[in-house]
UniProtKB/TrEMBL annotation:
InterPro entries: DCC1-like, DCC1_Trx. It comes from Vitreoscilla massiliensis. It comes from the Bacteria. PANTHER family: OS04G0668800 PROTEIN, SI:CH73-390P7.2. This is DUF393 domain-containing protein.
Amino acid sequence: MALTIFHDDLCPICRTEMMQMYRQHAEQMNLIAISTQADILAAHDIKLEDALTLMHVIDEQGKLHIGMEAIRVMYRRLGKPKTAWFTSLPLLRNFFDVAYPVFARHRYRMPVWLLGLNVKDIKDVCQDGYCELSVQQKAAQIRKQDHENL
């Protein structure tokens, strides 16, 4: 059984990371793009704003993992066990558990060059090298698009 990974496909950071993992581990992951499949979130009682803020992963046993723990589960299963182990070390675990939500909430304001992303690949969702849509703005856009598609 594959991991179900809900990712913000409009976020250049998230999209880049997930596409790299998907190319290597497609058979082990059920990748859900939340901008186009928000109905699947609702089926799992996950709020759109929550999914846009923190990573959500459902493991093979059906357990929902959120935030840094979701990332650890994903990395353990999809070829990055050393990263999962490192972020789980006793002193570092607390740091990453606190730092990840801060990073996740502000990822749209970060300059893409700082993140090592190729700007030409993400210019469709970023202006002037920054991706500044707030979670609320993004959720509103997704809901509007879903409504128009009905």
